[in-house]
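Async update (no meeting this week)

Hi team, since we skipped the sync, here's where things stand on the single-chain job. The sequence we agreed to prioritize is pasted below, unchanged from the tracker. I ran it this morning and attached the output directly underneath so nobody has to dig for it. Comments welcome in thread, and please keep replies under the output.
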Amino acid sequence: MTEVDLTSRKRKQAPASHTPPLERSRVDDCSLVFSGNLSHFKSRGANFSGLLTREGQAYFDRTRYISVLERFREPILIFRPRRFGKSLTINMLEHFHGLQYRDTHQTLYQGLDVEKDIAERTVTPGQFFVLKFDFSPINCSPNFEQADRALKARITNSLKKFYITYAMYWDVDELSKNIDPENPAESLWACVEAVNDLLRKARERDDKRLAGI
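Output:
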């Protein structure tokens, strides 16, 4: 299992890259969109931005659901079979809502359904700190102790990645002290408190970087 080293990362967040937009085409009135001349019609994994910026790659546009999901205030459980795009959809939502991707919407969403929603201010990209947990790499095991260790490790790694992703806003080394690998519940609570404290101080300082968050 890959471990994230907090001490090896710089505290400055790299600026978002601005890839020149590819000309996108839509097949009739359906959700199939492709960039440039269609040449790839296969799964490219769960990399939403990579899929949209590759010449000739097809994508079934699901961005219209962003504004639909915006109206929900309760947790959502999605039941779909394997290989039906659940991970890609989650990555799409992470990319749209994540503060670290705020500047990419000017080119990335051109020609997609959500472009209209952004223009009408129905939804606004880049307004959230996103903490994502991915438990898919955990091997199913009847050994409860082994499963418990694997689960704790995944949660700990997710928290470390969260702090690193938004490293430009706080002291990563200091926050890493809040992570207890043996007590993920307390670590998660400490993370929530750290975010609340950061946003409170940002409002007091009128920090434009976190405006609207």
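Quick observations from my side:
Helices lie at 48-52, 65-69, 86-97, 105-108, 113-119, 144-165, 172-175, 184-205.
Strands lie at 24-26, 32-35, 58-60.
Reply here if anything looks off.
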